[in-house]
Every structure is written in structure tokens, then in C-alpha cells.
Amino acid sequence: MRENAENWLQLADKIHHYRRDQLTVTQGQELQQKSADLRLKLKQRADGGRLKLGIESLEGVLRQVGGTFYPKSALVENVEFFLVAAIIVLGIRTYFLQPFKIPTNSMWPTYYGLKGESFPPGADAPGMVARLFRLVAFGAQRREALAPRSGEVSARFFSNGMMAYTVRSDRKWLVIPTQVREYTFSVDGAESTVRVPVDFHDFDQLVQQTFFNGTDVFHFVQGVGQRNVERTEIRLREGSGDAVPVYLVRLGKTVKTGEPIMRFDILTGDQLFVDRLSYHFVRPRVGDGFVFRTGSIAGIGQDQYYVKRLVGKPGDVLEIRQPVLYRNGQPITGAAAFGKNARQESKYPGYRNQRSGDNRQLYLRAPGETLTVPAHVFFALGDNSANSEDGRYWGFVPEKDVVGRPLFIYYPFTRRWGPAH
After folding, report:
1. Per residue in 313-343, pLDDT tens?
2. Are residues 318 and 392 in the same domain?
3. Residues 254 and 288 grouped into a single domain
């Protein structure tokens, strides 16, 4: 009851300080008197009955003079609570800790982006209990294309061997506008589609695992004769007038109506807390994983958040001699990922010059080619150099666009859970 009385006195003080200019002299005096009486009872350690009478007497005055502060409906209290909570969360996110989700595997294996796990038709797949566990622990979401009728499965492929797709508009959680890639299979002329996020890049690997036992089977583009290849066209984006050539290929698999043509889980990318505070007081260091905005980078063309590893500060001279990255004439140091890439240790592929057949690269395209980092910018590379569109392709990160550094992997609950590096 004493704790209850203290709460009522806090409310009385709040109303006094917020509304005393609106109260009459009589109302103000009565509020102060009832508050003083209850404080005296608390000081004298009065019993529960006397405290209750004091609270009821004070509450009667508060009901008359409380205005918008008392009495309050449950709706008003809940709205106020969630509004204050939202302000606090936005403040923390803006100035201290920002959650960030890794969309791609450019920093793999330091950070994981969206990954696919195949369950080929005929093989065992997780049941309902296992799927629920995987959803909670790893963010795993099931995708499958079901056979609309019985027959042989066909699909369309681009000339580079990737399965053809169309980018379409969709909604995340049925509300948030987003875009997806839609892949289409055909069975005896009837189509079945499967949609994946645009940042999901494992689909072709899953196709190989499902239909070709993981081997490279895309030499049909160069003229594999045993497959029935039909040339046609497909639009890359929904509603776009641009069309590209594709090849309809029989995949050598037959299915029955209702059976899965392809079945897999998409595992969520690593989700990080990003420290937005420390870079206000210390400069980013070579070797830091760092998050930055891309709106001022012409080679990217849209405002997003990227995470890469800082490899060059103003004045640094960089060079790639596969698999080693050199900074100012010496193998670069400052992060464990540098050494692991240089030794091609574990899953780290080593730093690469130009990717085969890719003419979009701007910098560090060949051994002997150096790059000097200009003033007021940074240069960033992904740890997965063989599969990373980083500073080699779009240039430099302005100092003003650096957001912070990864601090902690809070989800999913894998061996990578914990401090980021």
C-alpha cells in the first residue's frame, strides 16, 4: 500500500507541475493539501487502512483537476506507451545500434547472406516439427514448385547457363512492396512457378543439385545435341519491353500431378547489430567490416546499406596479386580475413583480379595494376572476392556515408552467433 501511495503522489506532482497554471487557486490548494496529508501518513508509516483513505481522498481531487493526465482510458495509455517505446527504439537505431540484414554472400564466409538447402524429390525433407524449429532457429522458409500435371519437366535458360527468370512486384508480409524473381517450370505444356527474393543467388546451384546431381550441365548452350533445345524469348522485368533470348531445355525428369518438381528451403542471412556511435569519435581502420550508404555512389545507383571490408584509406596504394591483396607494397594486415584469403584457408577463396568474361570491373583488373585511394573516400572489398561486386566495380565510399561497424550477430542461432568480426 505504501508503494501504491508513492505512485499516486508521483501522479499528483505531475499534474501539479503540468497544470497549475490552469487550476483555480482553490483547486491548487486542495491538490497540495491532499498530497501533503498522504505524504505525512507515509512518513509516519501509517497502516494500510489509513493509507487507503488518504489515497481515495487524493484520487477524488485528481479526478476533478487531472485534465488529460487523469483519468486515462486504457486506449490512451496503450497508445502513449507504444508511442514512447517507438521513439526510444528509433532513437537507439538512429544514434547507437542499427539492425542490419546481410542480403548477399559477398562477405561469405565471414557473414552469410541468403542460402538455399535443397530437398530433391524422392529424398527426405524436414517434417512439420523440424520445419517449425528451422523457421525459428534459422529463418528457414520452404519453397516448392508442384507439378500441374504428369510428364517431363522443362525449363528455360539464359545463354550464360543460368535458369531464366522474370523480376516481378510482390508484397512482403502481404503489406510491404518488394520485388521477387519468378522462375517457371513446364510440364507437358502446363506451367508451375516458384518465387524467391531478388537477392537470393543460390537458385541455379539448387537446380543443378535437383536435376543434374550437382554437375555442370549447362554446355547445352555450346551445342549439346542429346537435349531438345528450343530458342525463344523472355522479358526480364514485369511490364518491360526488353526481351532476351532463352533456351527451352528438357531436364530429363518426369513427375506426376501434385508431386514437387523442385523443393528447397531459403535460410535467412546473418542479422547484425551495427555500432553507429564509435565512428563519431575514431576513424574507421583498415580491416574493419563497415556499413555504409550507397546513395552517393554512382556505380550502384540506389540508396541502400552495404557491408564490406575496409581495405584502403586515403593515400593507400592497393594491388591484387592473386590470392593476396597488397597495401602499400606489403600483404595487407588488420583482419583475420586478410590472412585467410591470402592462404586460401578453409572457405576463403583468396582475392581475385578480373572475373572471367566480366568487362564491368573498373579497378584492380590484373596483376601489376595499382590503385591509389583519393582523399576523403575509402575503398572496400568483399571477403568473397570471387563472388563480390565491390569497390572494384563501383568505386569509392565517401567518408560522409560511412554508417558504422558490425558489432554482434544476433540471428540466426548458428555457430556464427556472437561478436562480429
Report:
1. 999 999 999 999 999 999 999 999 999 999 9
2. yes
3. no
